[in-house]
Structure formats: structure tokens, C-alpha cells
Fold:
Amino acid sequence: MFDYATLEALAAVIDTGSFDAAAARLGVTPPAISQRIKALEERMGAVLVIRAQPCRATEDGARLITHQREVALLEAQLAPADMPPVLRIAVSADSLATWVLPALSALDGVLFDLVIDDQDHAHHWLARGEVVGAITADPGPVMGCDTVALGRMRYIATASPAFIARHFANGVNCAALQAAPALQFNAKDRLQEDWAAMICGRPVSLRAHRIGSSEGFVDAALHGLGWGMNPEPLVRAHLASGALVALGPAPLDVPLHWQSLRRLKTPLGPLSAAVRKAAKAVLL
Amino acid sequence: MFDYATLEALAAVIDTGSFDAAAARLGVTPPAISQRIKALEERMGAVLVIRAQPCRATEDGARLITHQREVALLEAQLAPADMPPVLRIAVSADSLATWVLPALSALDGVLFDLVIDDQDHAHHWLARGEVVGAITADPGPVMGCDTVALGRMRYIATASPAFIARHFANGVNCAALQAAPALQFNAKDRLQEDWAAMICGRPVSLRAHRIGSSEGFVDAALHGLGWGMNPEPLVRAHLASGALVALGPAPLDVPLHWQSLRRLKTPLGPLSAAVRKAAKAVLL
Structure:
């Protein structure tokens, strides 16, 4: 079996970013950390740490850290740990901005490492074995995972009144949609083009500002930079006050799911329950 | 010289993520896009596009796109463009959450592509030639760039009253800081450890939740997940209402700078002026 002190040293180097900081965290000398990493790399026959500022894990290194975290999580069921176990989970930015944190704060004695990605891609992190659970639009299930439907997140096409007066004076039609600047979360975000295609009845290519922040998206709409599909819970107050206006009657609903590793079902139980409960309060 | 229609095809493939969508955007057939990319790859003697879902640029491809965008920006000074030029700039998440968007909304006829990174690392994007400007803690200047001081962003160590009652009942001392869960933006974020080191008078290793969102950071503090260094403009109202409490009298001030490519000084002039003005309204 592995020497888990060695795996802990590896996790500490990646977590803190340097051999010195890892040594300080574990209360040993930097040469001791260096030796452990070297021994582990020799045993695995692979480089595990990219020595840079900060240190990063290679793919092999990341796999070992994931394994160490899983074992720590299982161990925490048996005996109190001196270091709380780390739960790495993938969440969509819009879920984080609207309902995930209350769920996480219901748990105690664990640390969360949130990987923030587009809801259409969060499950890839799970498939690659880099997280123990994911909030994702993909119903899956990813192999070895359980999946639970959480409800639908409603997206509303929104813009500021000044933006609408300028770009949609003749209504929200196809020509206007192609000319007006849109917002896009990142290269993978297709929500705006999906909605525009629904309005036009054919695929549409938009020109868009790219802003990878849920709140930044709403702020950009408020400041008149562009129109975008915003999660209803994030714009409810702005729609009520008139600071933002819905571009059309048709919302887009995205069903969300909680997928988590079946082999960690017991230790992940409280988290799964908290996620379901918090989602129920906000999603449709 | 380059055939710029070819470079435009490359930019469209990366921007839209697929050959089909790029063809739709440029009003040509997918085989025409495919041919242009192939011709460009043959001329450069390098793969420029990683054919995946979505398509991604190789390093060589990204360099060409940056060049194409620069030329488009310079061209826009001479004649109206059918496609607005794209300004790719690196911003720190905390700046985006507090003062950057009003600056961007003051400009017209350009699209922004925001690269969001830690303020201590935003300038690396500039040094690698991937952005035309960066809001960064690094005074630089990066080679070939002009730098302007924008003012200081004030960070305050904050937590919820319930969190303080539980973890800092005997005051904010070194032992309590090492035991209480902290928040960390990402592996590169050292603000919490810098502040803790200031309190303890020696380097401190913290255990932290990792949450890469400025607003998520504030929300996590409000929900009692951990304590963290939050930008003063984002927590001012919470400190006034008592929903969050400052952990100690000592804030941390981070001076911010605007660095931008000197060779694009003229076309970037209006953006540089807007950034300076918006920063002045919020930073110290």
C-alpha cells in the first residue's frame, strides 16, 4: 500500500503552492518534503509536481491527490482527523451565485474546493475523476456515479431599458439580435445563441462581450454593455424595479442534477442531502 | 503579408468553437473555412486549431488571433468595420466586481473579452502577449507597455458574527487563526496568509475553502463558511449592517495598475481614460 504521509506531502505541496509552505503546514523540513515527493515520483515512475511558482500537479499527481482525499474522507468516518478532509466539487457559476453556498454552510468539519465551470461542462470534471461530485446540466449518470434531479434553473433574456431603446427600438427581431452586442459567459456558453435561435427559428451567430462571472453578467446588462440570459433569482429584483427588462416572453429552463461518486455515498450523504434541500428552495 | 480573411476565419473558429458556426458567422461554407485554416496551418508550418468540442487555439494559433485583433483595432481607426474589434483585457475578479464595468460601458463600438485572474497574476497575460491591457497589482511595466497607477484596493478581514463567536471567542490570535477555516480565492491567493502573518508576526499555514468568485467569497463569509479578505467596496454595506464584522483593525491595501500595449496607445486611449476615471471613483 501507499505511504500516506508521502501522499499528504504531495497534496500539501499542490495546496500551498511550494515545498517550503508544505513543510510549514506539515511541521517538517523542506528537504523532508522534497525527499517524499522524489520517492513517490520514483515509485510511480512519473513526474507528479511541476516545479514552478506556484507548484502545479501533473495529471498523474492530480490523480494521486484525488485518491488521497478520498481515503481521508473515508478515514474521517472512523476517527477524528487532524486535518479536515477536502471535498472537491464542480459547481456551475450560476448555481454558486444563487443557491449552493447555503447548502455547503450546513456541513461542518470539511473544507470545500469549488471548481467553477459552465453547467454544461461540470460533469466532465467528474468523468475525469477530478471531483467527488458535480452540479451539472448533464443528467448522466457518469459511470460510477449516482444522479439526482435538482429542479430547473430559469434563464431570462434581459437588458437595460436604455439598451433596449437603442438596439431593439423596432422590437426583438432577428436582424436586431444579430446587430446588438450580446453577453457570453465563456466560449462554451451557448445560452444566448440558443435563445436567439428560438426567436429567429434558425441558428444565429451573435457578437458578444465575454464576461466569465455570473454577477458580472448581471452588472454588464445593468450598465448597458449587452443583453444576456440571466438566472431569474439573480435578476428578480432588477426586473421588479425596472432596472432590467425581459427581452421576450420565452424563458429558457435548464434542468440541473447532482451527480456524485457512488463509492463515497456514505461520507457524501450529508452533502447530497444539503444540496437537494437548498436546490429545492430556489429551483423550479 | 497575411491574407486577413484567413486570419478572420481562424478567429471565428476559436470564437464560436466550431467550423460550422464560424462559417455561419462569416457567411461562407464550412469547407471554405476548413480550407482557409488548412492553408494557414501549411503556411505557418504549425497546427493552429485543436479540433475538439469546442475547438481551441494552439499557442501558435492564439498568437495569430492576437495579431489579427490588433490589426482590426488599428483598422477601426481608419474605416468603419463590419465586425466590431475585440479588446481582450485581463482584469482581477475583485476589480470586475467593484469598478471595472462602468469603465467598459463608457466605450462604444468594441467588444470586450475579459480574462479574469488573480490581481497578482493578471500581468502575466500581458507578458505572454495574450491581452492588450491588464488591471494588475504588478507595477511593471511589462516590456512594451505603459503603466498607470490606479489607486489602492482596500481588503478587510471579515467573518460573520456567529463565526467569530465560535472560532474567535478568545480573540483573533495565532492559534485561533490556524484552527478556523479560512477562504481562499485560488491556489495563487496569498492575501489571507499575508494578513495572518501580519497578526502572528510569522508565516502561518491556514486551512481554507477554495471559492473562485468575489461575490461567492462574500457570500461564504455571510454564511459562516470561513473568514476571508474581502474588498472594502463589496462588504461596506454588510459591515454597516453588522452582517459581517472586521476581524481586526489592520486592513491590507493592494495598489492596482493599468498596463497596456504601447504600440496600441492611440486606439486604446479612450479605454485607458475610462479605466482611470472609474478607478478613481472607487479606489483609495
In short: The first strand of chain A starts at residue 49 and ends at 50. The first helix of chain A runs from residue 4 to 16.
